[in-house]
């Protein structure tokens, strides 16, 4: 439905030394940097989390106000890491980078970095990952080398800061290189971070900071809903899309992964576009009251809101305050984390 801003094939394999040693001049364990938040996880990043304007809504019903209109964000540690529509230094203006801010649960906001892209946090909220596009050495044209950074929000230390496999400012035109093969797509688990280099996918061990080449097919790890397999995290339930050959429906449904007829949904308008799972039993999508075409264009007078639908009951609940809003979802949740929802006017 509502759509907004949306890996590339590599040009140079990682050095054999990366495989053998796990680190190098541009990789390995990061140095401690004063200013990173620390103290562990006090804000739960799980469940349905979203932002409208300057406020992040958490699954437990609490909110964090950042005082700045949010364009992208993630939740981890003791608060929210986010960017606005502000632009950073010229040298780091690629990958959609912007200054990185942090707001704690009390609403105190601090600027952490001048130019950051691809924000991610681990599922347990302990680690923050991003691509620093402004701090690395510059090529002859003034473009900074991308650096993948992972921070332990328990200790406040950098686990890693690396440019391994992300180009050479001494020989590459980095701006041209990054336009052809967008680097740095990130995925964090509770044990590892993965990033797309210019050729291979690199794994970072969060316990040690060591680097290695990930052996999964290139790009497979970075698939996001609705492009993945549509299964719930526990693999017991699946989203059945409208137009599915086996179940030709006018709107999405939920069904057991093992098979069987889709569940009837209740409490939602006629059109329901389910896109991802907030947890093992809660699917999230868009509920549309009115007409929408196959390209996601809303007819005049149509309203839409976020909606949650749970299994096994099939009960759906529109998310209050999202109709007519620009809703931002945490980076790395879905393919298009910004959703424009009409209010029917």
Secondary-structure element series: HEEEEEEEEEEHEEEEEEEEEEEE
The fraction of residues in strands falls at 25-35%
- The general outline is globular
Please, how many helices? 2
Give, in spatial order, the strands making up the sheet with the most strands.
4-5-6-7-8-9-10
User: What is the SS-derived class?
Assistant: mainly beta
Low-confidence stretches: 1-34
Residues in helix, %: under 10%
Q: How many independent structural domains?
A: 2
Question: Distance between the terminal alpha carbons, to the nearest Å?
Answer: 17 Å
Mean pLDDT: 84
User: Using DSSP, what is the number of strands?
Assistant: 22
The major pleated sheet works out as: 7 strands, antiparallel
Rg over CA atoms: 21 Å
What tags apply to this protein structure?
345 residues, five-stranded antiparallel beta sheet, 4% helix, 2 domains, seven-stranded antiparallel beta sheet, mainly beta, 2 helices
């Amino acid at each position: 439905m509502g759509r907004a801003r949306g890996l590339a094939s590599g040009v140079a394999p990682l050095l054999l030394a990366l495989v053998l040693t796990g680190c190098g001049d541009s990789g390995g364990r990061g140095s401690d940097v004063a200013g990173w938040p620390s103290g562990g996880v006090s804000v739960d990043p799980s469940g349905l989390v979203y932002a409208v304007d300057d406020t992040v809504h958490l699954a437990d019903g609490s909110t964090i106000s950042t005082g700045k209109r949010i364009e992208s964000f993630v939740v981890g540690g003791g608060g929210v890491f986010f960017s606005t529509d502000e632009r950073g230094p010229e040298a780091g203006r690629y990958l959609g980078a912007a200054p990185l801010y942090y707001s704690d649960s009390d609403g105190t906001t601090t600027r952490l970095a001048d130019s950051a892209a691809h924000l991610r946090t681990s599922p347990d909220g302990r680690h923050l990952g991003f691509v620093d596009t402004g701090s690395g050495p510059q090529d002859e044209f003034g473009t900074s080398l991308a650096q993948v950074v992972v921070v332990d929000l328990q200790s406040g230390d950098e686990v890693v800061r690396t440019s391994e496999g992300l180009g050479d400012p001494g020989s590459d035109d980095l701006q041209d290189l990054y336009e052809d093969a967008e680097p740095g797509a990130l995925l964090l688990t509770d044990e590892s971070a993965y990033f797309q280099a210019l050729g291979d996918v690199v794994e970072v061990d969060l316990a040690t900071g060591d680097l290695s080449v990930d052996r999964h097919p290139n790009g497979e790890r970075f698939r996001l809903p609705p492009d993945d397999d549509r299964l719930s995290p526990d693999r017991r339930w699946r989203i059945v899309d409208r137009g599915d050959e086996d179940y030709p429906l006018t709107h999405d449904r939920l069904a057991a992964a093992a098979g069987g007829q889709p569940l009837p949904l209740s409490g939602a308008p006629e059109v329901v576009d389910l896109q991802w799972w907030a947890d093992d039993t809660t699917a999230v999508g868009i509920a549309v009251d009115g007409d929408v075409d196959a390209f996601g264009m809303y007819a005049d007078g149509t309203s839409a809101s976020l909606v949650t639908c749970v299994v096994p009951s099939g009960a759906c609940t529109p998310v209050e305050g999202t109709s007519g809003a620009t809703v931002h979802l945490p980076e790395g949740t879905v393919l298009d984390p910004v959703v424009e929802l009409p209010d029917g006017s």
